[in-house]
Structure formats: C-alpha cells, structure tokens
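Project standup — Tuesday

K.O.: blocked on the structure for the chain from last sprint. Re-posting the sequence here as requested.
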Amino acid sequence: MSLECLIYRSSRQTEMYLYLRADVAVDTLPEPLLKRLGELSEVMKLELSPTRKLARVDVNAVIEQLRERGYFLQMPPDGLVQAHLHMGD
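H.V.: unblocked you, prediction finished:
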C-alpha cells in the first residue's frame, strides 16, 4: 500500500527535510517544530511504498511515522547538525 507525501527543505538547517503526509497541512504541525525548521521550501512529491528506496532513511520508518503523526523529520547526517547557542533561536 502506497502513501503520498510532500518533502520540504528547512531554511534553518542544512540537509534537514520534513516529509509531510499529503493530507496534512503545514500549519497544523507543532509550533516548536515549525520554529526549528524555519521557512520551508517544497522539494518534491513522492509516492512511498515499502519497496521504494530512499537515500538516507528507512522507507518503512518514514511510512510508519507519516501514518501515526502525519510527518517525519529527516535529520542531517552525523556531524552536520548546526547548534544554535543563543536564546530565541
């Protein structure tokens, strides 16, 4: 069974992507998550299925989280997370 999703790139963190189930609106996501991601740019639309290969994440984990909470956050590879050390960021 396939699942349609949209993929967005974070403006605040290099290599961080948000997978969003197609029937979920961005503005319904938790405020702390939206703040952390900054401005989102749509990258692509995908049809996910258990047989589809993804470059850096397990497709089954993505599908599971999309079904449970409507989104999946793909973190940057190790060593690329940008620390924000000041308040309000």
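K.O.: great, moving the ticket to review. The longest helix spans residues 59-69. The radius of gyration is 13 Å.
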